[in-house]
Amino acid sequence: xxxxxxxxxxxxxxxxxxxxxxxxxxxxxxxxxxxxxxxxxxxxxxxxxxxxxxxxxxxxxxxxxxxxxxxxxxxxxxxxxxxxxxxxxxxxxxxxxxxxxxxxxxxxxxxxxxxxxxxxxxxxxxxxxxxxxxxxxxxxxxxxxxxxxxxxxxxxxxxxxxxxxxxxxxxxxxxxxxxxxxxxxxxxxxxxxxxxxxxxxxxxxxxxxxxxxxxx
Length: 216
Known about the structure:
The protein is α+β, with helices and mostly antiparallel strands. It contains four helices and 13 strands. The protein folds into two domains: 11-118, predicted glycosyltransferase like domains (Thrombin, subunit H); 128-212, Beta Barrel (Thrombin, subunit H), CATH 2.40.10. It has helices at residues 94-110, 116-119, 195-199, 203-212, and strands spanning 11-13, 19-24, 35-44, 47-51, 61-66, 70-80, 83-88, 128-132, 138-147, 150-155, 164-167, 170-178, 181-186. The N and C termini lie far apart (40 Å). InterPro entries: PilZ_domain.
């Protein structure tokens, strides 16, 4: 019998600087409805884990897009308090192509050849937080990046330009909309040393999320 070669398995863990977007389901893509920003945490030959503002149901189809890894489609296999894991569905040659991209990305990390433009943005270590309106309405959101004067946010709604919102504990005004979210300008420039902590969700809110979404 001919020898059966085992397919190589490649995985890259602890990714913190790769931002992308994802679409839930197969319906028409609509910002704030099924199109959101996300942050990659792990990617392997057959699965990936992302931090995200909206957590789909188990087995629901999700299509992700990252500049370094292309467009990948799969099904939700696990849920976490800050995101979810996807089992990737490959077409012919797709697995080998993804392995090559993971290897190339890993080589760039080791040789410090990552995109310099990405280094200019401030990406929070805990991007999933909460956004609220003055009437005490609130829901999860994801901070794409931020500066002392504002933040780019993705959530399951698209507020109107001029609307007042609070991201974490910092209040500002929505000044722009884009395909996967919106931009908030803070009412006052923030202290760079303390801002990331102020953008985090309150401890009680995070505890509720931990109890709601447990790893399956």
